[in-house]
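Usage example:
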Amino acid sequence: MDMNEIKEIFFQECEEQLAELESGLLKLNDGDRDPETVNAVFRAVHSIKGGAGAFGLDDLVSFAHVFETTLDCVRSNRLEPTQDVLKVMLRSADVLADLTNAARDGGSVDGARSRQLITELEALANGELPQPAAEAVKAAPVAEAPRPAVNEEGFQPVAFSFDEFEASEPPTIEPSTFEIVFKPKSELYSKGNDATLLLRDLSRLGEMSIHCDMDELPALDRMNPEAAYFSWKISLKTDKGEDAIRAVFEFAEWDCELDVALAGDASAGAGEELPMQPVPFDLSLLDEEAPAAVAEDEDQSAEQPRDLNDAAVSAAATASNILQMAQTAARAPAETAKTAGPAPVTAAQAAGQQGASAATPTIRVDLDRVDRLINLVGELVINQAMLSQSVIENDTNGTSSINMGLEELQQLTREIQDSVMAIRAQPVKPVFQRMSRIVREIADMTGKSVRLVTEGENTEVDKTVIDKLAEPLTHMIRNAVDHGLETPEKRVAAGKNPEGTVRLTAKHRSGRIVIELADDGAGINREKVRQKAIDNDLIAADANLSDEETDNLIFHAGFSTADKISDISGRGVGMDVVKRSIQALGGRINISSRPGQGSIFTMSLPLTLAVLDGMVVTVANQTLVVPLTAIVETLQPEASAIHSFGASQRLISIRNSFCPLVDVGRILNFRATQANPVEGVALLVESEGGGQRALMVDAIQGQRQVVIKSLEANYTHVPGIAAATILGDGRVALILDVDAIVAASRGQSLKPEMTLAAAG
Amino acid sequence: MARKNTARKTLKLAPVLDLNEATALHEKLLALKGSSVEIDASAVERIGALCTQVLMAGARSWKEDQSSFTFSQVSDAFIKTTQLVGVDIAPLMAKET
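Running the assembly step on the lines above writes:
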């Protein structure tokens, strides 16, 4: 197997583990004391450590080890996970992520930071409270060498006399003898694991005797050389306890049958009479082969390639084990639900929820393959539409069987398309999780106390959208913390909680994903914004702007209201860049702000960039597609409902309210004169700025799903047009950019805004 | 046991007997079936459970065929690993050396 490939898998697993780690820590931070949460956090760090060890990533291993040690204290209730403790842990999780990235991309990490954290973590493990300055001296010598053994953590060497020792409670567990039955399955070997290695690790725990059960071993010519036949009965005298024994088998847990019992238990009695072979103490010879060997001899001898191979294999095993763990975790709740029989709905729901949070079985697929498939399905949809159309045109008597077949075909293509799109859909969770780190960092830098609340992390959206969402979101979060929230003192003075809240939510709304970022800060200082805009010649000094318009000024290029330019945000390349990136995704961004209460940024993004449901309309003999999501209703205007307003504006009265009429053909310059509204159809659309507009078109042809073909990629940007598509008859139709059209109808020029969007 | 005159074949084991080697070792052993065999494990640096299984299955089959299956030379690592996994190869050690 290719080493790099396996390493890449490891790093992908790492990413998942890190996400798991962070979400677990955040849960703990919120007061969750479920032991399963602590376990999940512990497992995440442990898996990273294991994999890193296999690849010889020493920095990562030693940091993860200290981290794990401290987490183990939490797990065993020796350390109370207070806010202060979790602060250290969250920062440790960040450093762990940095170290992982450094290991992957070869970058460097802030060594001082990780050393500092190691000191703090060890102090915590030693039962000291997180007061870095005071404890540094005490903990410093410990920081020199990370503790090697998992079980000794938490105990500092203490000078004592033996008299005292006998009197007081001994810190170690009494040595006891365990009977272990270990029966590997064939999968254990096929994953590159080896029973020999497990037995070697086991033998290190104490005094071990072993009996190898060969009863199942068939004759040579009938055996499968890669199947498991041996099983073992082991008697182990150790002071490390059962947990340590199970820890040896941790990564093989699902690939073997394992039974650990204290000697003398009824279940282990059967094995007593079997001849046991004592295992020699000195197995140092075999250690060289240990994949995670911390090489004392650094010489790049001929051993090297094979060690790498070893590492690769065990890492692969780790990777597949992690997958299996996830599978089992996902399966467990399902089984719970099943065994409950006629379970009350709540139980099933709870299980379902757990299932949703645990990973379901997955495969990794190259993104290119998915994209190719999506492209092909897009062509299929177009082709299917063409076929339907030609059948309808040629088949005047309407043979029902063909029509029925076509209908079914249409439904099938639709379903295929939906399913294919679902492959690309990913929850926004990873992006949201990244944001919590950014909030932490900015909060530290600005000395503000911030709490990030996220909602709807499982909302799914196309992967492209997710990838491109991170950057604008980062920017906005920084802005929210840096500019939006006040300092704790100011907040207290204003009668607010000194801890600011930033709320990040995602939800689906009418075929789009809406992401909202709300802070409970001071809100936008409109006076300041206005003054700044006047200073920068963005608006005239006497311009009369609504609150909404003033707020939206911050999206202009070269606009920053921060008094001083800080490291964090406010270089004047702020919100305009955000707006452009959102627009480039086919999305819109809005701000609403209430002085003293905070601001809310709302982004609305398409779920996919590949297809859309559209209404096909005719305007001045041109075929256009209007995105269905924008349309509220369609109506046939009556002459009595049309009212003129000003020089060229017209209004339409709908159910006792007035709505501006927008002549699409006029705005797009399809015709020179105004169309007669009574001859056409009005599409009532909801524009992003709020309020409804009636788009006037000549006729509606129908409603269909169209495959979006980028106009920019194939031609160049056209103001007022979002993209193009190919219709069933093979003609190209333009997809209308409703917001641009509405904006143009307000008298703003179509051009500058759009060139901006095109640039993004 | 000393049947040096009959067709006695020697199988020299590779240094690393892991998952990848198990099938190869199995084939090599099968090819030697019918004749006495002497296993040279002097070069073995590492042996996994799968190859141990193959060797033990071989030893059994040879015993059934009543021909000789012995280890002529063994490395320290080989001995230690077999002890670790609880496989006793002492009865299979070549007697004449």
